[in-house]
Amino acid sequence: MKSPLSLVYKIDVSGEIQRIKALPEGHEKISEKEKFLKSLSRLSVMELDNARNLAKTELRISNQAFDNVTKKIDIAAITNNESLADIVARLKSSRVGAEKSAEVIYRWMENNGFDFSKTLNTIPMRYSKRDWS
After folding, report:
1. Is the overall model pTM greater than 0.70, yes or no?
2. Which residue in 35, 61, 69, 74 has its CB near the most CB atoms, within 10 A?
3. Are strands 125-126 and 115-116 parallel, antiparallel or unpaired?
4. Cα–Cα distance for residue pair 101/112, rounded to 1 Å
5. What is the pLDDT along the chain (133 residues), one digit of tens a residue?
6. Can you tell me the distance from the alpha carbon of 67 to that of 92, in angstroms, rounded to the nearest whole number?
């Protein structure tokens, strides 16, 4: 988390779609559609599905175009307040490689109270009682 403001990140999907829909056809509208799709990387899986349906019907954005832009996950945008299950689901559906996914998961676990320590023969992991599912 870079700032407390990242905890309150919300996007008014319907409002943004209506704003873009009102733009005249051309380069600016295409650019705004792409910016809108890129901004969706922080949404939950259910919110993203809703945004897909609205974008498809209201802005005539194909599923392929939607996936090409939204499945590029912004790793820096992942916050410690997201559930680990949601993060793993987003990583699986994105184009992030295994090594980068492991780094994201490790960083999340470390920031949420997990303690990693190494002994001579094993690498035990202790975790906090905080719910991390």
Report:
1. no
2. 61
3. antiparallel
4. 17
5. 444 544 455 788 899 999 999 999 999 999 899 888 878 866 777 888 888 899 999 999 888 888 777 776 667 777 777 788 888 877 876 767 788 888 888 888 888 888 766 666 665 555 554 545 4
6. 13
